[in-house]
Amino acid sequence: MTRIRVAIVDDHPALREGTAALLAREPDIEVVATLGSLAEIRALIDGADPPDVVVQDIRLGDESGLRMLSGDRAAGGRPAGSRPAIILWTAYDYPQYAAFAYRAGAAGFVVKTAPTAELVESIRRVAAGGSHFSSRPDLGTLPLSSREREVLEHIVNGRSNDEIGGDWASPPEPWRRT
Amino acid sequence: MRRFRLDHLWLGLAVSLLALGVAAWWSIAPDSRFPGNDSAMLALWLSTGGLAICWWRLSSATGALDARFMAYIALASTAPLSMDPLVGASGPATAFALLASGLAALPLGWALAGRLVDPNRRRRARPLLLLAAAGGVLLGLAIGAGADGLGFRFGRWLLVSASVGVPTLLAALESIRGHQRGASPAQQRLVEAMTLLTIGLIPTLAGLSLLPTSWPQLLLPLLAAVGTAALLARFAVQPLARLASSATMQRDRVVEATEAERTRLASVLHDGPLADITLLVQLLDDRQEVDGAAIARSIAHELRAIGSELRLPILDDLGTGPALEWLVGRLAQRSGAVVRLEHTTVVRPPPPVELATYRVAQEALVNALKHGAAPITVRYRATLDGVALSVDDSGPGLHPEATVRAEREGRLGLSSMRQRAEAIGARLTLGVRPGGGTHVGLEWTLRAA
User: Fold this and answer.
1) Which has more confidence, A163 or B290?
2) Domain encompassing residue B283
3) Hey, are the CB atoms on B270 and A115 less than 8 Å from each other?
4) I need a labelling partner for A24 at 20 to 30 A (CA). Which of A76, B50, B233, B324 fits?
């Protein structure tokens, strides 16, 4: 079994190392990097051997980690093997962040004080092409059709794109955010 | 110190200037000059008096004794001059009036000069007072001796102008350099502006009343007026404007520093205790200490809330719209009031505008919850053209006096909103909606660079 290659980005060294140690206990997860800035994570992603999943804080010093979600780096619901999936890992479990993370293409949104098991579970899910939002995006603020809303409910509840797509005759592509 | 109501001052000033205008027209218009001359002089005298009263009130509010002293000298010297036509321009009557007021001016002026705090000024004030009084007495004697030629009139005008203008100008220049106790620098400047304005009018009025009204002869008083206006601009208005802008800058710096400090604290909380607590949560989870982990989580929750009160990370990361969502949700939950929010963001404005808009909305919302009534509606719209914010409540509406009262009681909510708006060059409107209820509006327009 190939292990899921994970990078952890947080500007608090003890927190990222501690979390890396907890994740390293999982047999199917390999922490390939613990980084402290956007520049480092960009270099890693653009490098020869990018990770499968990036777990990153929103606030990285003076920088906003949300920038990682813009453009082609957005990786939510990506087909396995392309760009890394990004899980926003934050102290602020505000629905506004979750909504933005969803719209901007994050694969997951996990609150830092959530049990480690939840982080592990979300890593597995997004590595498999799914998504995981531990704080519900504020759906009221999203300009969504009823069907989009339904899809989002599924995503929030942790179902993968393929599972959701299977519910309808239409292919899952429209729900992927690339 | 009793607060001086600036609106009274401006009202007095406006009435005086209006009267001056009427008087000037009256005395200069060729047809009406002779029949209206006495009335014109009365109006001039009244308006000068009105100005002086305004000025006196202001200078007593600021404790600017020097200005009061000079006002006194000016009034004492010009009162007889202005009375000149009123007493029928008969030599002996005018002479008597001049002598009487010149002498009456002395003891009071002397006493006032004695109250000057600065010994240097006190030393200088008394000779100046003597000079002014001597000018008045000399004039009285000259008129009494029957002098009435054009040369005499010019001389009279020059003497009066100099005896009033020179010491006053000196005093004004000196007080521009010095400090007056108990007054803010801006108030001091205002006093000086009023001083120069009032004093500057006197030679003009004197010239108008004393000289024949043919144009070449009117030129001199006109030049005097222009010169005074230039001096006024140079020594009073400019420093006042500079001071006002530096006061604004200082105020803005205070706000900036406060914001910077809040941001710093929030970031220290996030990077320090909040991160440590997160580690602790992980540790306790790992040891399966459920109760300990629950406590640690609730501490994390509180720290997060404190951090967000200081500086909402949503504002920086996502903009004013989502930040308002958070704020409205939080305030509505806390107060139980119905707060509606409509927001659209086509493009995010610059960060200072986002911050100012958020803080104005925050202040307006807190006010609406405290003084107004639900439902409250918040609208925010950020487009390519700019930003529009409105907060409307359904309460009785802002009382017109509320701003003044609030500031007097040390509540700075309304003025802080005004400051935020000014700092970004936005327009803030406070008012009552047609159907009742307070309306707070903020409009910021993107200017083409």
Assistant:
1) B290
2) 253-309
3) no
4) A76
